[in-house]
Protein 1
Amino acid sequence: MTPHDAPPPPAQGPAQAAAVRAADRAHVFHSWSAQGLIEPLAVAGAEGSYFWDYDGKRYLDFCSALVYTNIGYQHPKVVAAIQAQAAKLTTFAPAFAIEARSEAARMIAERTPGDLDKIFFTNGGAEAVENAVRMARLHTGRPKVLSAYRSYHGGTQTAVNVTGDPRRWPSDTGTAGVVHFWAPFLYRSPFHASTEEEEGARALRHLEDTIAFEGPGTIAAVVLETIPGTAGIMVPPPGYLAGVREICDRHGIVFVLDEVMAGFGRTGAWFAAEHFDVVPDLLTFAKGVNSGYVPLGGVAISPEIAATFETRPYPGGLTYSGHPLACAAAVATIEVMAEERVVERAADLGATVLGPGLREIAERHPCVGEVRGTGVFWALELVRDRETREPLVPYNASGEQNRPMAAFAAACKESGLWPFVNMNRTHVVPPCNVSEAEAKEGLEVLDAALSVADEYVL
């Protein structure tokens, strides 16, 4: 799609931008930020795979906002569906049967793996994880949850404790009943493995040992991102998730797959679990379910866990659960994805453009240690030394230590590409319906910007 909301005239642009930035800095408290050290870009509009500022500078969004605009910005059919729902019924309490809510649940259940046919709606991914953990604990009567160190599951109290990355640290009281373990990641193997097969087998043995020493009868759930997102897009080795499924079955542990980022076409399948032929007991989703146009998330629930609450009330709920505007947006988004073959296009783009293009780029840049991903879900691991695999910046770097990644990101933005940068990685996560030409445009900018990162290689 091409922009239909033209950037403002240059004479108006700077004044508008200044006013927007001033109001933001005076009143908006931003997440994950030191408030006095940030200067948010003032955005004037967005369309398809692009957004632009008040000076008319356009950026190709290789972040998909926060990896959720799976059908791009301002898709006219979804905008029209939100408008139509607003005219019909803007909002209604969650205890009632509402057409948009029922239809969204039906369409999501049709696409989830296996028989996950009950949908509990939330406002986003973190609340989905919160409720999935609560369901698992109530279903099993057990307190503990196991999750991976390289993971992100949300910023609310339980979800942030289930998270493995450093954003957990300030909120980790050590009393949340969460135990972390190492999931497979061959490039930085904690198991001294040399093949994917070894990595998968040794990771499963490590999980078995962790369960044994924690006490199987104390563990309610194992929570995993099917393919970890913010933590690095590490596709699990063949057989690993099936092995986790078998371990959970053997010990009566609920298996939760977090598909908040990987779901709804991002990996070239409706849900990433399809790639591994695995069905969890609970599956969390959000983001791509309606391309983030109106906040929505949820939990898809197995019959066994749903039966636990057939005559026993589920002690949880949200005022805006299954909000009609959000659900109408989800229905329209899923319809658009089916009509425009967005999932199939994402798979094809990963196989024919993004994967080959990123590997070709890696050959030219000594700072690229590894390329990994699938569909429209890729990461480049940037290193100072390919032989030692020393990261380009230290783990959780900030300030001066993060200069190489900051310089790389600045080079991308200067050339009109908005990158997803986390620690020593850049992720390539454009909208699932990004065109081949747009994808190649982004790869060209990445190629040039990586020359900046090369300057820091030993």
Protein 2
Amino acid sequence: MARTRRAVVIGGGIGGLTAAVALHQDGLRVTVLERAASLRPVGAAISLSPNALRALDVIGLGDEIRDLAAWQGDGGVRTPGGRWLSRSSAEAAAARFGGPLVLLHRATLIDRLSERLPPDAVRTAADAMLADPGDHDRPARVRTADGEWEADLVVAADGIRSGVRRALFPDHPGTVYSGFTTWRVVIPLPGVEFASHETWGRGRIWGTHPLQDGRAYAYAAAVAPAGGHAEDERAELLHRYGDWHDPIPAVLAAARPEDVLRHDVHHISGPLPAYHRGRVALLGDAAHAMPPNLGQGGNQAIEDAVVLAHHSRDLAAYTAARQPRASAVARRAVRVARLNLMTSRAGIAARDVALLALSKAAPALFLRGFDGIADWRPPQPPYASARTRTGER
């Protein structure tokens, strides 16, 4: 009788849990070690584009998440005064990429993923470190306060400050400051109607988007020195964005200081030598942390997870499949961040004029930034979702 392979996942975020579910469904015995006291994420919403939804189809979750889509009608890019620079719609996005864009709270996705694991698979308050990456002849070892775990596969989903990444590649410089800070808030916004939008100012952006449960997700980013924090982040947002177009003042009026999360943005500027070493595979921010301006950080982690399950016996094949793609997406995210957060008045004027002109000439321009990203498909056909199979091109 064949021995059941064991996988240990370090990190219980979206990428780690997706990998755990995919590996569990492939017959591995999976343990998730999460350092926090619970799986409730510190964060706000996540945008899932069709590439990540197809990856979730592999584990049978894609259609369940698609049903949470809230974006209807028009959306696009605006100026702080409210003028539309580029417009699109949910229908156009679905037609171009074969599926919707879904925005949902991170906690909702965490819950749906954890429900697909055995009850004893997740261990919280379990701070883990890599003791030995293993090799072809010996298992990897992971150390916790309660003892060591041996594993045929270790999945390092321990985030942007990954200790496993440092252990595997100590000579890699790690992350760099991206040059800007971000704020996020999820709040009820009753009686306020708005079109989903992102607004580009001078060294600042703002986005407001509806969630299916009636709440609104808003985010902002601004060029700023690293490490700066205000005593009252809501007051800081009022100072920076209070005179921008509706519904931004309504969001700020409804938010409390404790509703606002602020984080400096860091990314990995130079790719790692590989996404694996020995029996250990890195995924998500641990492998390719990127600016959030394409909304692809979590999406790429989900892609990583299902591709890793597909190549769980050949981690070199996992690196070969994921490193070129994730690195290319990360580079594009850096370029988009520079475009979003320009500070030169002349450059901003030229950017806005070009965006407006091109949008009038080609209404689908707003969606072109996702070509080669949102149309990705996982390597495991057929997909779990009948809806996706019938929509394949």
Protein 3
Amino acid sequence: MDEETKITLRLPADLHRWLTAQAKSARRSLNSEIVYRLEVERAAAMAEGESP
């Protein structure tokens, strides 16, 4: 990742709690967990031939 962009993200409270628990379980920060999940989804979409 060469460049980073800061964003403000609003999440439903239950999704935030779930993501926080997942991050803790994987020993990642919440930010890293979100980035990880987005990268996995992007790789899957690209493998299925979806546009980037």
Protein 4
Amino acid sequence: MSALEAAEPDVEPRRLGHWNSVVASYYVLIGATALLLVIGLVMVLSSSSVESIDANGSAFAVFLDQAKFALIGVPLAILLSRLPVRTYVRLAWPMLGAAVVLQLMVFVPGLGIEVGGNRNWVRLGPLTAQPSEVVKLALAVWLGAVLARKQAYLQSWKHVFIPAVPVAGLAVGVVLIGHDLGTAMVLLLLVAGALFVAGVPLRMFAVAAAMAVGAAATLALTSSNRMDRITSWLSDDCNASSDCYQTLHGTYGLASGGLGGLGLGQSREKWSYLPAAHNDFIFAILGEELGLVGTLVVLGLFGLLAVAMLRVIRRHPNPFVKITTAGIVAWIIGQALINIAVVIGFAPVIGVPLPLVSAGGSALIMTLAALGVVVAFARDEPGAAQALATRPSVVRRSLAVVGLTRSARRADRTPRRGAARA
């Protein structure tokens, strides 16, 4: 369907419910994001309630924090979804510069905080934030702006290397200095997704993959903590009371859930048996309480997000939009797959949250912000803006319904009064 046909108000509404609709990406992104957010809030409340009572005297402490972050992230996502594409192009360099400076603040004495061996947090007054989450979105937007301008020259390694690789390497490097290998892996997935959609030849990916494997091996060999995680994952006789404890109890949670689960709130592992039950291993609690059905629903929603973002890449003519969306989809879906692989035992414990579902303020806000950016791109698809403009807003529809209801009530009352007088 052409953009002109999609803009006709008498054609678009009839096709609105079909995947071929020009606004399908827009509505699927919003719907899948909203459902994952709701599921996440419910599961954070359930999985954190026991330890919240122990630590804070209230079962709702962690949940209320997560709800507060959602109330920040949702308006931010709505705001970003309304910005034009050209605004993001203009903000690419300032965003990345600010994100790198913020990440460097974790090394400032008195500001930086170390959690679980990772120095990846910063405290600004009463607020605590994880700057690496800001780096993810800023890097995706920056790669889109830079690679889109050089797309015709990316067959040459020099144009690929300068400035994309050094600057992206700097962004990943400042995260690695804080020993956060999990976030660095997600950033590498983001860079790979952006470069692939930009049109970088596959032979260059082979060289980059070899370099990445070598760097990962070096980082693993130079860290006793990482080596312990890897060897315990590969070992057949891992100590169930220490090295394999978390993975084992995550498996217990998933296995005991069965097909339909034990019921919402009925998890046994959340009673301080499973560490990080409301963070990195929330998928295990979800499987325990909601069963295979619940896990498949979550996987299906992430699949819908992926398909909608890939549809934006396919349909949008602007290379900046294509490349930036590729980076974001590689980040969010790649991180979700890493998290789930860890929980089910297909990967060693790395320490990355499940997007939109796990507890964590910085991760939730920036994931919602990134999806808001992609929604802005979906609104800019050919024919989408015209189609959305022909549909009345929610407020106008609500007012119209209220007005019709009042008119109907007045019409119903008039005959009764006349009949009473007669």
